[in-house]
Specification:
209 residues, mainly alpha
Length: 209
Amino acid sequence: TDKNYLLLKMKIAKEWNKNENTAKQYAEQAYKYYPENFDVLTECATLLLDSAENASEGVIGGKTANDFIEAVVNIEKDNIKTIKLLLKRELKEEAWKAAIQSARNLVARNPSNENKSLLVKAYLGGEQYTDALEIASALYEAEGKVNNEVFFDYLKALYMAGKKGVLHKLINTNIEEAKGERRSMLYYYSALLQGKSSSNYLKFMRQAL
């Protein structure tokens, strides 16, 4: 019932084993024993926000992500973890203007690559594609070769910013060695570059599946 042990097991289940149900079980245990602990409340909220459900549906111990966020805000409103939670909720709810402001605030306080990646998502959602591309390009150079999420956001930023020549070159450079989800995404953007009127559009879309 040690708090750190339960949170560690929760993270392993979520991030390494990709088992959301097991992660929720550990989170429920942590919340049961430490219902007012800031870190436990934060991790429970994060787990729910990262799930496929919206912020008012998924539950841990009978509480939604919104419930956990409210409790976290009441404990420490200006904590960087609180700001990150609020940002994740704004991204999930597609509240792009608020998300951009929160993400800029977060990056100003802690310019980690993870936080910059959240700012890219906010910019993409808010249709600020040039701003998104500037950060996404730097993140790609730093870790895009190993981080799929960074790579996918870079592809999207290039396409939405109209940098089709750069995107085409990136696809050709990576597609032969790419596997799994990364390969599928490269074929997806290959199809978009061809356009729906092209005879290759459906071929590339089928390869993206």
